């Protein structure tokens, strides 16, 4: 079966008692077993029964099974948000003294999680220019456990050669963890590219119109966990299921950032139309980016789908025809950015991606406001940058909105 069919027809793990065609919302906490022995089996994990909704739930399990079927992976866990997915992965892998290699071009809260949340626990990060994968070798030491990257970084829109990074990682027994929120699922084959653990904020594309928060951890079953001391007892027992097993019976359970049944229901529904929406929003982004490049007041446009982008070739090689639905552009001054945003009529001023609506924001004064201008510069977030997360409206209407906003701005500048 192809992607679109699997997204709709992945079977339930048990047939519904009433023959419901859509997985019902099991909005309850506890599950009863037929006897005490079965409950013991469930707690020991020898029988896959639901007992308590923080650990598992039929509606959430079905959502996980659809993702598992779509990615042909060895295990999937759905969580309450993208940040819950990222933090669970690191709490599961890292221990004090470990370090990881990453780039400074990251989603703002991920960078904050590394620097402010994990650092006090003795886990450190080495920041590299991942567009030059060869630098990873020099940064690796005996305590380096893994590499973390974003497939297209938000909001810098940098694209690295993931296959090259994966090869270097494999040579040094480093687990490759990738946040593919901007290019999820049908965009590219993460497993084939060499990504071991994939994390996705399903709040974005998958939720289907910004209906609900959610996060996904996908274990492609490709990493040999014997090479990380913390995992070696489990690795002998669980093989390619080591990571998901340890996560499920320990970190995921203990942290408690489970996805609610209602959100799993919404996101399963979102997955069914995902491939249609993604095509439309990426197409819209390409049209907008090409148009924006021709506008006088705009000093630069950043989108990997543009032939002028330094990442165009690698983006094409990795992702094919679609380059995501996020673009940034620069005006001359911060004040111009604010005025541009205030003039918009259709496009909304909000922070999210892959809503059905097009959203625009000034990242420096919002998502990155906690950082000094110097750090913002290091993070690739300028004061003159606008980020646009493109939706599925008709592109002509979006162009007209941007055009009227730029015209008003031009009038005021004179
Ligand atoms: C939004 C986002 C996250 C965080 O996801 P939440 O669901 O908001 O917790 C992580 N990474 C990227 C690239 C994002 O865009």
Word description of this protein:
This protein is α/β, with parallel strands linked by helices. It has two domains: 269 residues, 3-Layer(aba) Sandwich (Aspartate Aminotransferase, domain 2), CATH 3.40.640.10; 139 residues, Alpha-Beta Complex (Aspartate Aminotransferase, domain 1), CATH 3.90.1150. The protein is built from 15 helices and twelve strands. A seven-stranded mixed beta sheet has the order 1-7-6-5-4-2-3, with helices on both faces. Strands 8-9-12-11-10 form a five-stranded mixed beta sheet. Strand 4, helix 7 and strand 5 form a beta-alpha-beta unit. Helix 1 runs antiparallel to helix 11. The longest helix has 32 residues. The mean pLDDT is 95. The structure holds pyridoxal-5'-phosphate (PLP). Pyridoxal-5'-phosphate (PLP) binds next to helix 4. The site of pyridoxal-5'-phosphate (PLP) has 16 residues, from helix 4.
Please describe the topology of this protein:
Layout: H1 3-9, H2 36-44, H3 58-71, E1 75-79, H4 82-93, E2 99-102, H5 108-118, E3 124-127, H6 135-139, E4 144-150, H7 162-171, E5 175-179, H8 190-193, E6 197-201, E7 215-219, H9 232-238, H10 242-255, H11 261-292, E8 300-302, H12 312-319, E9 326-330, H13 334-343, E10 348-349, E11 359-361, H14 373-378, E12 385-389, H15 395-413
Parallel strand pairs: 2-3, 2-4, 4-5, 5-6, 10-11
Antiparallel strand pairs: 1-7, 6-7, 8-9, 9-12, 11-12
Helix pairs in contact: 1-3, 1-11, 3-11, 4-10, 9-10, 13-15
Residues 81-83, 107, 110, 150, 154, 179, 181-182, 201, 203-204, 213, 215, 353 line the site of pyridoxal-5'-phosphate.
């Amino acid at each position: 079966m192809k992607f679109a069919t699997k997204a709709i027809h992945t079977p339930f793990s048990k047939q519904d008692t009433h023959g419901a065609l859509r997985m019902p919302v099991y909005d309850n906490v506890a599950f009863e077993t037929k006897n005490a022995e079965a409950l013991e089996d469930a707690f020991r994990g020898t029988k896959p029964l639901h007992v308590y909704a923080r650990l598992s739930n039929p509606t959430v399990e079905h959502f996980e099974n659809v993702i598992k079927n779509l990615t042909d992976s060895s295990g999937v866990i759905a969580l309450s948000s993208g940040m819950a997915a990222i933090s669970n992965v690191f709490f599961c892998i890292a221990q004090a003294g470990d370090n990881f290699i990453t780039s400074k071009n990251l989603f703002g809260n991920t960078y904050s999680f590394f620097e402010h949340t994990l650092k006090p626990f003795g886990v450190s990060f080495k920041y590299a220019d991942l567009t030059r994968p060869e630098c990873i070798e020099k940064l690796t030491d005996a305590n380096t456990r893994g590499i973390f990257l974003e497939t297209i970084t938000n909001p810098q829109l940098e694209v690295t050669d993931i296959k090259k990074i994966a090869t270097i990682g494999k040579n040094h027994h480093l687990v490759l963890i990738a946040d593919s929120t901007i290019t999820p699922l049908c965009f590219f084959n993460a497993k084939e590219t060499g990504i071991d653990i994939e994390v996705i904020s399903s709040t974005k594309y998958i939720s289907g119109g910004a209906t609900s928060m959610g996060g996904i951890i996908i274990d492609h079953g490709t990493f040999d966990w014997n090479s990380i001391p913390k995992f070696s007892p489990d690795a002998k027992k669980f093989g390619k299921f080591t990571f998901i097993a340890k996560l499920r019976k320990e970190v995921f359970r203990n942290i408690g950032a489970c996805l609610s049944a209602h959100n799993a229901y919404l996101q399963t529904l979102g997955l069914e139309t995902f491939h249609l929406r993604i095509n439309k929003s990426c197409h819209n982004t390409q049209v907008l980016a090409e148009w924006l490049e021709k506008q006088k007041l705009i000093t630069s446009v950043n989108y990997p789908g543009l032939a002028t982008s330094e990442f165009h070739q690698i983006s094409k090689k990795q992702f094919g025809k679609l380059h995501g639905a996020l673009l940034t552009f620069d005006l001359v001054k911060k004040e111009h950015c604010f005025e541009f945003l205030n003039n918009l009529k259709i496009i909304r001023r909000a922070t999210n991606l892959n809503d059905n609506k097009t959203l625009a924001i000034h990242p420096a004064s919002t998502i990155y406001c906690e950082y000094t201008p110097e750090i913002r510069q290091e993070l690739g977030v300028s004061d003159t940058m606008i980020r646009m997360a493109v939706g599925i409206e008709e592109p002509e209407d979006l162009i007209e909105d941007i055009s009227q906003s730029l015209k008003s701005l031009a009038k005021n500048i004179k």
